[in-house]
Write a structure and sequence with these properties.
seven-stranded antiparallel beta sheet, single chain, 258 residues, alpha+beta
Amino acid sequence: MTASRTDAYRKYIDSWVNDLRTLYPHTRQGVPRPNIHAAGHVYDFLLLFGPVVSWWCFPFERLIGALQKINTSDHIGGEMESTIVRTVARTANLRRWLRRRDCPEAIRQLKILFDKCFVPANAPSSSNEFVEQKGPHRAYVKHNGVNLSPSDTHAGNANIIYRPSASEPPVAGQVQRIENIHTPDGKNTDVRLHVQRYNPISKALYDPFLRYPHLLAKSYSTSLNAQVDVIDLDDVIAHAARYDYSHGRSVLVNMSRA
């Protein structure tokens, strides 16, 4: 997180608050909402903790959603909560005991089975992302933790930011086909993405996102170029989110986690 980005956030949030009162005069008379005040403090959190993706609450919301799906058998009043806490505590204590130096060797051998049964939520994945498949094409491929798919399989996973060639700047495009590359003995070792880039917007139209360079968003035409670029996975910069808004324009946002 750079100083220019944090300053840009404060500038844009101040502009939004001021324009809100101009566009909606009735807001001048009301008491400022707490969430508007809290939005101003995001600037401080950016300085303290870095990019929002590293400290937002979506993981906790997802955990709450998982807990809500647990069958409680209509038990209320803390019994379910205490059961969950005891189970987590016992698992953590057992995991710690298995890692102690004085743990008996016979029991230490069981740690392999234990780790397979109780995988920590934040455990790094040791599996290779590339999965070998038969046939000339595939429905998806995983790259840098993100699933990429042809548009006819999953339109949301088909939008990417990529380099068409070493001499061209990055552009936005849509994956049309994922081709499996096989060795002479039939082993699937790699893939090629067949991508159609989005056409640039007409010069008569305005890109409102040019004002916000830190957003990594750019407007394109909703239409695709007829030319197909065949690229490697290493040419993919990031997955992109797309939203069609007006006059045949789409905004594509770079969703890079870097």
